[in-house]
Automatic annotation (TrEMBL):
Pfam families the UniProt entry points to: Acetyltransf_7
InterPro entries reported for this sequence: Acyl_CoA_acyltransferase (IPR016181), GNAT_dom (IPR000182)
Keywords associated with the record: Ribonucleoprotein, Ribosomal protein
Keyword Transport: no
Residue span, N-acetyltransferase domain: 1-164
Listed name of the protein: Ribosomal protein S18 acetylase RimI
Length: 164
């Protein structure tokens, strides 16, 4: 079940973050690290009612932020519209992959986009994160642009899914 996250979910969320950082490191991706995402990032998302979790009988198995604002650089990206929700910090525990959890998050953000009259959903990922790129393409997003990351040597890819 996808639901809004609450502060008591933070320990489970940070446990998943730790698992995902380790897995990304094994794949050579530096998108997440010991500095990002932080507990403070998720707490800020909770306070804005933008962080969602997947809760199953085993507990929290994934999380995703459905943000009403893009990242700072989104004004420089040639998205079709600014009337969009942004997917941020999507992760599923490695032990719960391939069970449709990311699809549940996608269904939930599509529903929220419809309820809030958004014209698109957008997101970004590092060039060396093929798993995230596959997620976007599988869910009918179009690649929009590539931009250097100011903090790292790996460029970012930007994706958009038009809804209207």
């Amino acid at each position: 079940m996808i639901r809004l996250a609450i502060e008591t979910d933070l320990a489970a969320i940070m446990g998943i973050v730790k698992e995902v950082i380790e897995e990304m490191g094994e794949r050579g991706s530096v998108q997440w690290s010991s500095n990002y995402p932080s507990c403070e990032d998720f707490l800020r998302d909770i306070k804005k009612s933008e962080l969602y979790v997947c809760e199953q009988a085993e507990g929290i198995t994934g999380m995703c932020t459905f943000s009403h604002t893009g990242h700072e650089e989104y004004g420089e990206i040639p998205f079709t519209t600014t009337n969009a929700l942004t997917i941020k910090r999507l992760a599923v525990s490695p032990s719960h992959r391939n069970k449709g959890i990311s699809h549940q998050f996608m269904a939930a953000i599509l529903q929220l986009a419809e309820e809030t009259n958004k014209a698109a959903i957008n997101g970004d990922t590092f060039k060396n994160n093929p798993h995230a790129q596959k997620f976007f393409l599988k869910h009918e997003f179009q690649w929009i642009a590539e931009r250097p990351d100011d903090d790292r040597d790996v460029p970012l890819y930007y994706f958009e899914r038009l809804l209207k």
